[in-house]
């Protein structure tokens, strides 16, 4: 099947676009190569999945007539296993005792992109096998020995849930409460905005509290909930200055840095709608930092996931 894609559409296909040649002829050569290799793989293995106009193939392994159709803009929860057509495992995340991994079903919402594209064919509870050319996967990106350049993929995926923004907030609130309970963590109070706050120190009795327009200097550590590994952090020797109330701040910063005093110290757990919701998701998670360092994604923190933030106020001015 010839791909009916003009040059503007071709460029929108590539989430890692700066890895790729910029000429239409080069892009067409990539597509022709991957299409040929994928067809040869399917023929060798006597597989007859459905071919899509975008270039990936799919077979529906299990149907769920009572499931809800996934539509544009939904936040989707999925389990998956990603392999190359040579059988090399990139990641298996099929254990449904763990929380599903989330992304938004919009253009650019997920890497590899074909998993996202196929979402629109699915109802919740349905399982697919996807056969994906590299130009809809990781393209010529490589990561150690895990992902080799120009890898065509075979992906098993189960689309288990979809959420509206309101439903996601309720879901994350439940995840946070369950984490605190199972970890036997106490002292957290939930704010009206949905942030769970633990006060370690109320700070100096003297001096004015922070307010909009004030600069608050903090030392902080940001991790995923349940992890000790810092995603972002500052130290006493290299603190971070934040102007309270600035519209460019993450929402949770304006909410938690207002009305506090010097030397105060807090631990907070933040739902994603007040933190880092708007960003493409990346499977497997392990390559996100590398993609960020190379400029292929603009946000190092994963979307649609609560975060833990510990901070101490060093100065208010």
TrEMBL record:
Gene3D superfamilies: 3.10.50.40. Residues 1-24 form the signal peptide. The keyword Signal applies. Its EC number is 5.2.1.8. InterPro entries: PPIase_dom_sf, PPIase_FKBP_dom. GO terms for molecular function: peptidyl-prolyl cis-trans isomerase activity. The keyword Ion transport does not apply. Pfam families: FKBP_C. It is an enzyme of class 5 (isomerase). Residues 73-163 form the PPIase FKBP-type domain. Keywords: Isomerase, Rotamase, Signal. It catalyses: [protein]-peptidylproline (omega=180) = [protein]-peptidylproline (omega=0). Belongs to the FKBP-type PPIase family. This is Peptidyl-prolyl cis-trans isomerase.
